[in-house]
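Project standup — Tuesday

K.O.: blocked on the structure for the chain from last sprint. Re-posting the sequence here as requested.
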Amino acid sequence: MSGVLSLVFTLAGTVLAIRVLVAKGYGQLIRDDGPTTHHTKRGTPTMGGTVIIVAASLAYLIAAFATEHFPTASGLLLLYLFVGLGAVGFVDDYIKIAKQRSLGLRSRAKMTGQIVVAISFGLLALQFPDERGQTPASHYLSFTRQWERWAIPTVLVILLFLVMIAGTSNAVNLTDGLDGLATGSATMVFGAYTIVNIWQNNQSCELTPGPACYEVRDPLDLAVLSAALTAACFGFLWWNASPAKIFMGDTGSLALGGAVAGMAILTRTELLLVILGGLFVAQTLSVMLQVGYFKVTGGKRMFRMAPLHHHFELKGWDEITVVIRFWIISGCCVAGGLGIFYAEWVAGA
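H.V.: unblocked you, prediction finished:
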């Protein structure tokens, strides 16, 4: 129900959003230093991420109350992170449009907003134990499950959450540079987390105690929300695929990136995120390498342009070719991550 409602809300809501945004003249500004082929996109409606946020949130809440499986602490915290970072992105997008300034919020203000949301999420996620003493987030580091040998001090845990949330939200933001690239990649990652959550619920220590069971607080509720997120991205992709009729803007990319990081934290798969979100990691690394190489060599560039997708555009690849090939890479990363997750369970069982 959550997935179906989210898909319907996004497909229909995006049409309405396009009409409203076009009528108000809320179009995307294009950087002059980017690929010249992007100049034709100037004026395309942006802030479409608002539709994703509203559709996924409503679908999750309606499905929860309609089936009397009411939202849990984990689900509400992830929703808070998703909507909170979306609000930061919305302010950024609105400033770009209202002040006709392509960079939007100043970097310090934008980062401050991300820090406030991330730290408050982290502090709250370490509260609200259930009847078994499980809190939404953990003091232990995790790959496919938490390592219970060494507990991490609260300050370091919050710092880890901050780095993950800020890093992933900015990584998705960097990836959102070609029609449908970030949307399609996010669809696959949230689809993977839907499977992970369902598997963790079926093999939870509460339902099936054993050597390979999972200690996660609310895996079934997280599966409902991740299904809504998957469907919302899938529905938005209908209108965001090349040639895009609407862009998600920072409203969508920051929200989706935060939700990906939050899902990794709450499912105890923090380090597995590096594999599942491999495309986002590669995009971020390309920017870091470009900046570092530029400073070390006194002005030389490692890539023709960063993030990585622009490098291939400037090499002569068509935009749609870059998007599809990067989708394939993202799909391979997701398949690899799910394979590792399942193989670890088989080995443990």
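K.O.: great, moving the ticket to review. The chain has twelve helices and no strands. Residues 319-348 form the longest helix (30 residues).
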